[in-house]
User: Fold these one by one.
Assistant:
Number 1:
Amino acid sequence: MSKLLESKKALITGGSRGIGRDMVLSFAKQGADVAFTYRSNKEMAEAVAKEAEQHGIKVMAIQSDASNYEAAEALIKEVAEGLGRIDILVNNAGITKDNLMLRMTEDMWDAVINVNLKSVFNLTKHVMRTMLKQRSGSIINVGSVVGVFGNAGQANYAASKAGIIGFSKSIAKEVGSRGIRCNVLAPGFIATDMTDELDEDTIKAYEASIPLKALGQPQQVSDAAVFLGSDMSTYITGQVISVCGGMNI
Ligand code: NAP
């Protein structure tokens, strides 16, 4: 059976844990050469790289802060040289620093906007030259259902994820004529370190309110990312694709 991402080259930010880790492994399984970044956990990143290499593809694990403009420029250069081209960019790196508005500090606001939203600008800005030259590319920005509906205690996070939607729709309009697509993947509640902090009662309440009656798994988000990166989605751009068990209806 042919693989969905055969001969594609992908860059995924935040690939050492959670959803990003699963995307690295799923992309590798589907035949793509994959470069991925992490912020601090080298050991974890090396373990992911080793696992991905077992699919017989090329892997690059690079420590790079997605919120840093110059680092993003250097990263794109390194990956374009290392893999030869960049067909798929997944802006996945993200953090939360939750608190109610009365207690939210300027630092909490800045950190979340920089890592979640400015990073998307940084990477998209620097990959553009490569993709324009190729006259093709798929940019997948990881948003959240919270970016559409809001969430008490997450004004910074929701604003960053809502910003990603406006950004992605604009990019889709700007470069669609050059064969470059840009979509948002909006997960609901997915079982990762990010949601691990929630207590059991909160998780049970969420599960009860989700039409599919369960938290999502990283693999279910990766499946949608594989689709958006593949030639199965060549007429899809500027869209927000929710992977949330129906929690947004
Ligand atoms: P996670 O388990 O906390 O993993 C975050 C990943 O991002 C790690 O690999 C981390 O690297 C990396 N990272 C953090 N800051 C970075 C930076 N400045 N530069 C580069 N990499 C950085 O998170 P997750 O749950 O998989 O979430 C992934 C994405 O999905 C995020 O954008 C998140 O907002 C979104 N999302 C998640 C959920 C959910 O329920 N989990 C729901 C909706 C949306 P280190 O390990 O080195 O720190």
Number 2:
Amino acid sequence: MCGIVGYIGHRDAYPIIIKGLQRLEYRGYDSAGIALFDKDLKVYKKAGKVSDLENFVKDLKLEGSVGMGHTRWATHGAPSDRNSHPHSSGDRKLTIIHNGIIENYATIKETLLAKGHVFKSDTDTEVLIHFVEDIQKETGVDLREAVRIALNKVIGAYAIVIMSADEPDLVIAARKGSPMVIGVGQKEYFIASDATPIVEYTKNVIYLNDNEIAYIERDNLLIKNIDNTVQIPYIHELDLKLEMLEKGGYEHFMLKEIYEQPRSIRDCLRGRIYPQEGKVQLGGIKEYAEKLKNVDRIIIIACGTSWHAGLVGEYLIEEYARVPVEVEYASEFRYRNPIISERDLVIAISQSGETADTMAAIELAKEKGATIFGICNVVGASIPRTTHAGVYTHAGPEIGVASTKAFTAQVTVLTLLAFYIAQQRGMIAQSKLVEYLTELNEIPELVERALKSNDRIKEIAATFIKTNNCLFLGRGSSFPVALEGALKLKEISYIHAEGYPAAEMKHGPIALIDEAMPVIFIATKNSSYEKVISNIQEVKARKGRVIAIVSEGDVDVKEMADYVIEIPQTHEAFVPLVATIPLQLLSYHTAVMRGCNVDQPRNLAKSVTVE
Ligand code: F6R
């Protein structure tokens, strides 16, 4: 949520910042702004997308080799020019960009109002920069100390960058709970919410930790904790290629990412399965192999699409490893008083590795003594750095706001984990594992074949672009696939969609079915095939329109359904990986035909760093 970019060095800052904001636009896109030091501190901001900001400044000569930029996802204050970042102090000498929420801003604002401060926006961010100004004026300390004192007093989450008209060769950055990466160049530094704006300039990055403040000059970087102790930063080398951040000829990032799935699943499996030996190896958690033998219960915590992946994980882990699994919304879990013991394993799933609710749920489980594994996509993000161990999904950067390849990569990791735990606990025969892993190894190819139905799916999408409601039904591990299909459709096409276990339809949703209601079934040839056929008949009896995802060569469902989409037959355990593909394409084409912005759906942001 909200993207931050900053630069100090010897190059022109504006092009670096604007390009960086375009890369980070997936984090929020309701307004954007920049600050540049060009003889004086100048601020330009505008409601709308980064392109609106670009148009706004296009006739200006923007110079300066120090600057920062922000793309916003509104929390406090509606999207508007005046609520856009950067925000300035009362005397206009300080300016700030911020990602996160200052929870005690109202109290601070009240005190500042009583002292005569006048605010120009409704944001918590403006309060923070006035607070810094006030501390400087009241105590006479320098800017560095004033920022430190202010950050000791604020409650909430932040990643901030501050510039001062009086100190043109200094940029101050700090974080607590919101991500911040510093790129280290030759007498230049780059600051960003993630590494994507930095990668073309340097591969050397420092991930700022919570409660750290970086004082950045062209040839000097000093990092201190907010208690003023100097920190020794660790420089990581980025494993990110520029072409991963581009559309590569596709119309949208979402479509590119859907088509990347054979590759991303293969990357996720690479070096982790040995089909001929019947062996799964997960380096990131190998130190916990013993612990897994005796684990009492697994609790999976996640949000949104990652939560759906967790539900698939529940089926697989219970089926193969025979460990009880509970799947929890992180946002609910963190506000309960959950019963957790040291014999529990908590698995946090997150594409971004930054989701605020998932982070808070991890902290809670940690306090209660559980072992925490992370399943994350973004390397070096907050969640993988806070968990005890974990497995990366290796899907590569996911830029479309609707999650696609990250979901199938999460399911792939959970599949591996189910077999890994089963293997540790002696729950699976070696010969069976050889069979399963051989089939799993072929999934990238089956996904490739499933993608071949694209044209057919496009034709089907055209038949229901005017619909207002839609139902997705599946049984067993296809139920979470139905949930995911419904989420995809609603988030990018704004069609109301519900996912249900197919048998639950009779207990309520059946009342919705009429000629206008498309019902999408996952009806592959697996253990619940016959039962799903009965459910299809129930829908047809009420004149519902049935679209079915079926196994190649199916005849029975074909006779009943209005439309079928064939996918290659695979073992039940792997159906979610293949059946998800047509649902992603269906949402994509429907949204495109409805004229929606599929990569940046309204009101959403990729990385939800506020609760
Ligand atoms: C939906 C989607 C969201 C995310 C959710 C969790 O397409 O992308 O529902 O899955 O916000 O995000 P992560 O996985 O980054 O924790």
